[in-house]
Amino acid sequence: MTNPVIGTPWKKLGRPVSEEALEGVDKYWRAANYLSIGQIYLRSNPLMKAPFTRDDVKYRLVGHWGTTPGLNFLIGHINRLIADHQQNTVIIMGPGHGGPAGTAQSYLDGTYTEYYPEITHDEAGLQKFFRQFSYPGGIPSHFAPETPGSIHEGGELGYALSHAYGAVMNNPSLFVPAIVGDGEAETGPLATGWQSNKLVNPRTDGIVLPILHLNGYKIANPTILARISDEELHDFFHGMGYEPYEFVAGFDDEDHMSIHRRFADLFESIFDEICDIKAAANTNDMERPFYPMIIFRTPKGWTCPKFIDGNKTEGSWRAHQVPLASARDTEEHFQVLKHWLESYKPEELFDENGAVRPEVTAFMPKGELRIGQNPNANGGRILKPLNLPKLDDYKVEGVEKYGHGWGQTEATRRLGDYARDIIKLNPDSFRIFGPDETASNRLQAAYEVTNKQWDAGYLSEMTDAHMAVTGQVTEQLSEHQMEGFVEGYVLTGRHALWSSYESFVHVIDSMLNQHAKWLEATVRHIPWRKPIASVNLLVSSHVWRQDHNGFSHQDPGVIDILLNKNFHNDHVVGIYLPADGNSLLAVSEKAFKSTNMINAIVSGKQPAPTWLSLDEAREELKKGAAEWEWASNAKSNDEVQVVLASAGDVPTQEIMATADKLNKLGVKFKVVNVMDLLSIQNASENDQALSDEEFTQLFTADKPVLFAYHAYAREIRSLIWDRPNHDNFNVHGYEEEGSTTTPYDMVRVNEMDRYELTAEALRMVDADKFADEINKLEKFREEAFQFAVDNGYDHPDYTDWVWPGVRTDLEGGNVAAAINTAGDNEK
């Protein structure tokens, strides 16, 4: 296995939880609550030593209390379970505003000081710890990457379960208590996340324990699941495949030790049930179990003042953020804050120097079993490079023999063959994910070596092909789930590829944004977080070949979202537009070797020409863009009348047909292809992009450039505004036009077809000289469209065109035969 087995997992305790351990949990809870309040309120005098005044309170009170005490309670008990069972554990903190609980946990288990030595275990260190929270030059208010033990920030709600289940895949020793906030539980992605239990196998995967934290309120409104009846709530989760156990505390005056005893007994009973599930799974004869989950009901803001200014606070929405917003401004609120802090008896928790007393943490796990030090929560520590097969075994052959532009190959099918053998060589550390589109996007070769993991009922091979309770392909019709699974998988030290239709990637724009922010924070500020494998996203079934599905499926805008993340030379985003099968293979190899990135690879799945040999593709990828000298007819930049540039497979096809027409008209041009979109970004903004000298060599210093681009034209303009010759770029891209139509009409309505591009190039060179040719081209555009209207298919002038460099004297057949067989694997 890639991930280590830490401790001796899945062992029953065999005895009641000791009183000493429970006393430790109670001290932990009080200490964590005190630390959490201190982070929100205090800038100095962290232990309230006299004189403790309003000047010790922060000017800006930022943070959230409402969910925090419940989280502190749960984390204390999770620590106890880890220590008693020596259980390999990572926690997911779904409630978005539980940051104080996460940092308090790391401070108490010692890992915070290990990573940040200036946060010492004394009064001075405690003051720094408090002051930095939600403070200028400090740390965020969420369970962020800055906090040891975190793999889920919670700043964006809905993905706690997706991350948790992704983390346990191929990780059979890992236990992940996933705490879900009741506000978060109202989101669509979280509602979908409950279905994840049908996509794991307890024999080969770890166990997720969902803990629904019901405290009744969001920012200002009640939460749905907190208000429905117990019977309805239990039926809902039982229908989702869980055995729910409800725990209620804090609504009366029950002694805290009694509450701890009740929860510890329940937790042990549930963990025994989990151990039984794991044991039964190893017999290979079990049906999918009803996995346990906990419904954890507590008052919102548990243990804070019950009333403030006569208004109910504990157990109401008023406890959500900062219950005492005027603690610095009014003596009355300051005194309430003082009594609140004193209620946790800090003198019993911290010694005279401000250090946490040993008895507070004696019950907690040690070493790598600590939540903040578990290697799975810093996945780069255990990441191993993929064992990649030899890329040449998958290349599209024929270019060297028959010429550039040869054949008709489905590029993503070749990637499927490559991915199949990556799984074969890395059977428990590489997965393919997809929302019911793995085969649709031509990656189905994986099924030769693995199955789709599925544990929700099986009918027969005739109806349920390639499905089994274990496998390295995961599918659910939810982009949220796929992205969440992939993030959880790579954050815990593994590798993945997932694919989606281009228009549907927009569903997870905000997830990509949040993961990029996690990577940016890591790259800039957190050297102790080791590089993790990249999120590799194959964007297929793209805008230019969604002619059959129509306008709703035509949107390349995910590129725009990712471009927003490419600042400060962090290099956490890669955007690749391979023009053919060999280029896709070269890009994929680079992506699978990369770390700390989101690699978006945009590639069509329809048969298309192969323009480059694999060696040529690799050479172009080194710089990201290159002149195709074999397609150019100008021998130098001085001779060039127009530069023909492209990025993307269909735009390249159209620009190459344009080159053919211009050549027949005697126009001198050079052809430039861009494979790595960010390679042309302003050198002033990207230190890995082409230099201005290299850019000028490709695009010339002063000649017109006609650029056919896969997505929105403004994206190219935003990338090159500081480049030489940028004013001479004429960019054609997707113009938000489309329908259910033909491939030709799709490019026509967006001014991307070869006839319009040729006419545009002629206008750029000499509109008067070529006026007659321009008129002919414009007229033929309409004739070709009418042909499609009349016949239901495209004009032969469009469909039958082949790059003139392709040989027609093929041995054993003609070019048509080569086109028909080019998709076959010739290794």
UniProtKB/TrEMBL annotation:
It comes from the Bacteria. Gene3D superfamilies: 3.40.50.920, 3.40.50.970. One of its GO terms (molecular function) is aldehyde-lyase activity. Residues 17-381 form the Xylulose 5-phosphate/Fructose 6-phosphate phosphoketolase N-terminal domain. Keywords: Lyase, Thiamine pyrophosphate. One of its GO terms (biological process) is carbohydrate metabolic process. The keyword Iron does not apply. PROSITE patterns: PHOSPHOKETOLASE_1, PHOSPHOKETOLASE_2. Belongs to the XFP family. This is Phosphoketolase. It comes from Aeriscardovia aeriphila.
